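S1.2 Input.
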Amino acid sequence: RGSLQQQRCAQNTLSHVQTLMAHVPGRPAAPHVTTPGLLERDIYDAGQTQDLPGTQVRFEGQPSNGDVAVDEAYDYLGITHDFFWKSYQRDSLDNRGLKLTGSVHYGHEYQNAFWNGQQMVFGDGDGEIFNRFTIAIDVVAHELSHGVTESEAGLIYFEQSGALNESLSDVFGSLVKQYQRQQTADKADWIIGEGLLAKGIHGKGLRSMSQPGTAYDDPVLGKDPQPAHMKDFVHTQQDNGGVHINSGIPNHAFYLAASALGGFAWEKAGYAWYDAVCDQSLAKDADFSAFARLTIRHGEKRSGKETAEAITQAWERVGVVL
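S1.3 Output.
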């Protein structure tokens, strides 16, 4: 079960290094909205080619055209924008009203979604391993959140700073899903990519923040390699130094902090993480410890000592030295 080609494609998707593609030189700057907080979306159909953006099929305020991928992209771009504006008063990804653009039906059975510095791009999956990549709101929000990290911290996509970059996208991706469902931390599933794995694949999603390393165990995909503690940190040359693997450690720290604090995770814990990524003192090559210290500082500054203590304990429980 699972040809070599399928296994290679699946592994490539699981370590989707395309996530943070470099800005394409010479491209005009994306248009911006002049009214703060105003949502502007454009959805294109790439027609199973790799030519971007493709044909415009839905723009802001236009009704559905009956294409489920178009509608999911449109809706989930909107909810992500709404989340950042209402939760953190952030005006789109760049905080300057960036218009949100997405292209669906990219490539032939393309098994990925990515943010290319200008727009979102979604493949359809092959239906055997992965479903369409618009299906999971947290995956959509994960990729969009790379735009936030890129414009604020510019964390280098390598080793610990790269794993932080990935983890921040998982954190905000999960928070967008919880915000959409109005779930408190104790009611959330803390799975990234629920619904993305095709029928017959043994797994709940791509990653688990509550139990890193348990998201999937399948003959084609292999076993989820994420650690939950620094003692199991994976040293590897692959995946830009394990950015999609070791992100399990800061992911679990966020889960522990949010669970201890209770209520809506995007409030106390979420704000501490958001304020930390926006802190100008965060170095581009920051390691887990440097980021952790900022989350504690900002947690106390905004929400008080109890929040700082819960965040401190969360990082200590995953073995990050403070």
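S1.4 Remarks. The beta strands are 41-45, 55-59, 100-104, 113-115, 120-122, 191-192, 207-208, 217-218, 222-223.
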